[in-house]
Amino acid sequence: MNYDNKKGDMVPVDADENKEGHHEKDGDHKMIMHQLTNLKQNAEELLDHLSHCSTNHMEEGWVKKKITLATDYLDSARDYVISGHETEHGGGDDKKEMGGDFLVMVERRMAE
């Protein structure tokens, strides 16, 4: 993707202009949804592989560091987004609606 950085902010050169300014927000939302879907698929593949693999990949320090870092970043993003919704919408502890089941699944499988 080509970017135009004349104003100091990264903007795709080939992005369609939208008079109402919604294009960038829609594009960001789609990108984030795609990345989260990809993250979920990668985590599921990794969990499946590790549950059937006789090699202990967790002995390799860099593997543990990458998984720990990814978990920390995702937890932070989730906490920020969810706490913003609770503040805006008057609370609510339904983690199922907010994707919490996926993280619980990852945490349980990592503990095994």
Number of helices: 3
Q: What sequence of helices (H) and strands (E) makes up the elements?
A: EEHHH
Largest sheet: 2 strands, antiparallel
Query: How are strands sequenced across the largest beta sheet?
Result: 1-2
Strands, count? 2
Give the end-to-end Cα distance, rounded to a whole number of Å: 41 Å
Give the tally of structural domains.
1
Low-confidence stretches: none
- Looking at the structure, what is the overall shape? elongated
Average predicted confidence as pLDDT? 75
> In terms of structural class, how would the helical and strand content be classed?
mainly alpha
Please indicate the percent range of residues in DSSP E strands (runs of 2 or more). under 5%
Residues in helix, %? 55-70%
Taking Cα atoms only, what radius of gyration do you get, to the nearest Å?
Answer: 18 Å
